[in-house]
Amino acid sequence: MINVLINGCNGKMGQELAKQIENKEGFSILCGYDKIDTGDNKFPVYTKIEAIKETPDIIIDFSVPEATFKILEYALDKKVPVVIATTGFSDEELSKINEFSKQIPIFRSANMSYEINLMAKIVSSLAPLLSDSDIEIVETHHNRKIDAPSGTAILLADAINEKLDNSMTYEYNRHSKREKRSKKEIGIHSIRGGNVVGKHTVTFFSQDETFEITHDVSSRSVFAKGAIKAAEFLVHKDPGMYNMNDLI
User: Fold this and answer.
1) Helix/strand/coil for 63
2) Which CATH number applies to 2-112+221-247: 3.40.50.720, 3.40.50.300, 1.10.3720.10, 2.30.38.10?
3) Residue (of 130, 141, 11) closest to 67 by Cα position
4) Mean pLDDT in each 10-residue stretch from start to end of the chain (248 residues)?
5) How many CA atoms lie within 13 A of 11 on its CB side?
């Protein structure tokens, strides 16, 4: 049995994760951590790290960057692997996470969907074949999402850029610019509205043709199931940084 601590257990993804774990053979929710205890959960919920009595086999983190680092300190002290599904980290914060991974196993992905990571592989393989195209990425999410652009949009852009020898720059806002589009840029655009779980489109614009690939998520269960797969993969690994490519 793999006993899980859910970081961010009262959020929408934390609640979805709890539901999926309850139906997953070989997994059990040991406890949760969040800023408040709503009293609605079937498992113990702690609002202070130092109050956590149990030691889990693994931590799955669906929270915000500040809460991620709190749980990483706990994980380091207890030598517990961590699956990080939180997004919105700065470059400095990502560097800190890498430092933690030298002492504990960490699995981090901007998106826990298998298919979105497959999409990243596909668009990156297309980029050299469509090297004369203008590349634009549009991401759409619900109106409660805090970070923009999404971590997944950056994941897709990075996958493309890597195959183009990191020669591209990212353009997030053309509002203040009065100049034509550069061939060496990837446009990244964010749309927020309603209850959209997550939609990402990568478009290659050539002179006479348009090639477009879209991934659209209709249920948050996709991300929860992916995080559980990541936990199953990570639980007995040595310290280090792992991602969806390792799982795939």
Assistant:
1) coil
2) 3.40.50.720
3) 11
4) 97 94 95 91 93 95 95 97 93 96 95 91 96 96 92 94 97 88 96 96 97 95 94 96 89
5) 20
Q: Tell me how far apart the terminal alpha carbons of the chain are, to the nearest angstrom.
A: 23
Distance of CA 33 to the CA centre of its chain: 19
**Which pTM value belongs to this model?**
0.80
pLDDT at residue 8 in the model? 96
Catalytic positions = 141, 145
Residues 130, 163: contact at Cβ < 8 Å?
no
Rounded CA separation 43/63 (Å): 18
Query: What was the pLDDT predicted at 128?
Result: 97
Q: Cα 169 vs. chain centroid, distance in angstroms?
A: 22
Buried b / exposed e along 119-149 (16+ C-beta atoms within 10 A):
bbeebbebbeebeebbbbbbbbbeeebeeeb
> 67-74: which pairs have CB atoms within 8 A and are 24 or more residues apart?
67/7, 67/8, 67/33, 67/34, 67/35, 68/7, 68/97, 69/93, 69/96, 70/33, 71/5, 71/7, 71/33, 72/97, 72/100, 73/49, 74/49
Positive/negative CA dihedral, 139, 20, 82, 230: negative
